[in-house]
Amino acid sequence: MSERDTLQRRTWAIGDYRFVGARFVLAAELLCEAARLRAQESHLDVATGTGNVALAAARRAARVTAVDLVPELLAHARRRAEAEALEIDFIEGNAEALPVPDGSYDLVTSTFGVMFARDQERAAAELLRVVRPGGRIALACWTPSGYMGRMLALNAAYVTPPPGTRPESRWGTIEGLRELFGPEAGIEAVPRELWWRFAGPEEHVRAWCETYGPTVVALEALDAAGRESLVADLTELVHGLNTDGETLLMPLEYLEIVIRP
């Protein structure tokens, strides 16, 4: 495994993505509906994480394969599938080099997953490679203007990413999608929101700094003063987006995308 893959695996294994992924279930269900998933279709979920989309597709009687780089997340996804008696083929693999043949799937999906690939062009090319002619690619990706996009940009402001790194939220823009998938691709993108609920902004920030891998890694790379400053800026961001005076009720803006190559 390359050093870059090792770093990616550690980023998503650290913290506790189960806590985070559990709050994104609705986006997975809606994506299957937007993609008009049909029974018995062959479906590949890329960067499946805790398996939200894979499980949603299996519940709709698709023939599902799910790929992720992180063994710990795949193990959790398998347990979830077993609990629901769902048949899903889970495979360890990298979104930039998917371990499946060309043109194998009617539907290829990723929810807040493939957008974190280091080589975005290569990851997009892999999605195009494995989808069948006439098939489609369905994605849910964070926008630059929403909380997740702004939070990731905040991390990058404190811990400079490697040269040539593009923002993950590029996948959450029409311009970025056309760059990645080509001007001839049919792209339908609908803005959507999930709502993040906590007892208050500070409670969210505390939990986030303990569970969300990219933020945990950023905090590890900083000295005490840097960590304090990043947490303060994150808290200010959350307060600014909160729509409730007593608890935290915060929108998470994303694009729901269906691509027909």
UniProtKB/TrEMBL annotation:
Write the protein's name: Class I SAM-dependent methyltransferase
Species this chain originates from: Nonomuraea zeae
Q: Provide the alphabetized UniProt keywords.
A: Methyltransferase, Transferase
Q: Where is the Methyltransferase type domain?
A: 44-138
Q: Enumerate the Gene Ontology biological process terms.
A: methylation
**Stored Pfam families:** Methyltransf_11 (PF08241)
Which PANTHER family did the record assign? 2-METHOXY-6-POLYPRENYL-1,4-BENZOQUINOL METHYLASE, MITOCHONDRIAL, METHYLTRANSFERASE
Q: What Gene Ontology terms describe what this protein does at the molecular function level?
A: S-adenosylmethionine-dependent methyltransferase activity
Q: Which InterPro entries match?
A: Methyltransf_11, SAM-dependent_MTases_sf
